[in-house]
Amino acid sequence: MLVAGLLVLAAFCVWSLTLHAAPFGDLPSHVVRADIVWKAFAKSLPDPDSPFVVDFLLRSYLLGDLLLGGLVQLFGWGLGGALWSTAAFVSIPLSVFALASKLGFPRRSSVIAGLLSTYPATSQFFALGFHHFQIAAALLLVGFGIAIEALSSRKNNWVWIAYWAFIVLSYFIHPAPFIFGGVVALLLGCHGVWKYRTDFLSRLVSLWLPFAILSVLQFFVIGSSESFVSWGSVSDKLLRLGSLSVRYELSVEIALLACFAIAGLWWLLAGKASQTSHERNLWILLLIFLSIYLALPRETTTGFEVDSRALFFVQIVMVLIVAGRVISHRGGMPLLLLIGIVAVNLTLVGANLYRNNRWNLQYLELLSKLPPQTRFLPVETGPWPRPGNFMAHTAELAWFVNKSVSPYLFSRTNANPQVYFDYRHPLQVPVRTWYRREGPITWSKFPGYSHVVVTKPVDLLIMPPGHQVVWQNDFGLVLRRVDF
């Protein structure tokens, strides 16, 4: 049964490597930025002819960009992006397996934990292309597995160094997991003080040292211009508890989530806790992450949701609690149901990614009709199937097609956290969703764009006055502005 689950996991990884059109929400923007950042660092000198500028600053996200950019240089943007997405997916089950092993789970339970973690590994973060976050979270999980080993070891200098390395690598790929990691470090530290009565001060220092240094860097050296605007009501928070598991088809995935919860509860009731499963500590950790989710604000001034990231770790801890239960082979029906749900989930995700990949290929055909090095304005008319903004950044791939530039790349100008990257000559730009939210705009306010790429269906009456249709397919149109 477990072998079948592993084969399903391997098949999904192979399948995801064939998706060469970046069918994950934000991924096109990340791939383009990573390519530009990597080339800038490789040259070590500013390129005055580039439409972008890259500051050589030590910042979060930078390491992830360099790793992704390296894949793009080696394999091209299509396969390089697919490798990055596959790594983001498979890093979660591998890290959960490693953490479960360090927690003392039997090998069979560790494999079950890894397989079940494919459910949170394909959450909205995966569908929307938040792959930096997933890889950083995986590194954090491995780091704490190493810390657990270090807490129970006397000769642990090299083990602590490995732990510090994983925490630092995680931070420089994405900063969010490091915030939650501080909570886990506190829990592990308190547990270490209670269990190991000697050397507790050195153990606490060893656990907290990387978080202390990175906190100073993040909050005092780098700083943040973000402010929180919405906390959300308690009822709203409770209703959104399962939102991370709903990606494409609302009714289907709510049913799938319910089945997963029922099967997990069945497994918990049918089994018994292993003496080495740390179940009590995991339940405490689950309550802590739920408390963080309820306490964190929902949105920042730039619209970023911050509380839902805690739900990712809630799901991981729930998987560990379920897998930590020992159950006889004769009582394998709940396990069979769980593995079946894993297979159905990966099939559902794979089918939707194939659809999105096909649509992105049609969009790329539109982008290929733009003149080289064009400043153009992409317009998404929607509405699209869930997730609602999966087409939000596909237009950025024009950089790879003919070096054309979309104004919506993640950058300093667009108030994104990747402040080391920006446009050399930023142009005024309408809100990306203006077509669906605001209707007609005053085109004279945005004079820098010679072409418009717009998806169908579209009302051409609110497009630039006197435009000419350069080319179209079933997916959209390329318009040239005659007033440019």
Structure, described:
- Helices cover 57% and strands 7% of the residues.
- It is globular and about 75 Å long.
- It contains 17 helices and 10 strands.
- A 4-stranded mixed beta sheet has the order 6-8-10-9, covered by helices on one side.
- It is of the alpha+beta class and 484 residues long.
Question: Quick recap of the structure?
Answer:
The chain is 57% helix and 7% strand. It has helices at residues 2-16, 27-43, 62-102, 107-116, 118-121, 124-127, 131-151, 157-173, 176-195, 200-222, 234-239, 250-270, 279-295, 308-323, 333-367, 398-402, 434-437; strands at 52-54, 228-230, 272-273, 299-300, 325-326, 376-379, 421-423, 451-455, 468-472, 476-480.
Q: Approximately what portion of the residues adopt beta-strand conformation? A: 5-15%
Distance between the termini: 63 Å
Number of strands: 10
Shape: globular
Rg estimate, integer Å: 24 Å
Q: Determine the structural class based on helices, strands and strand pairing.
A: alpha+beta
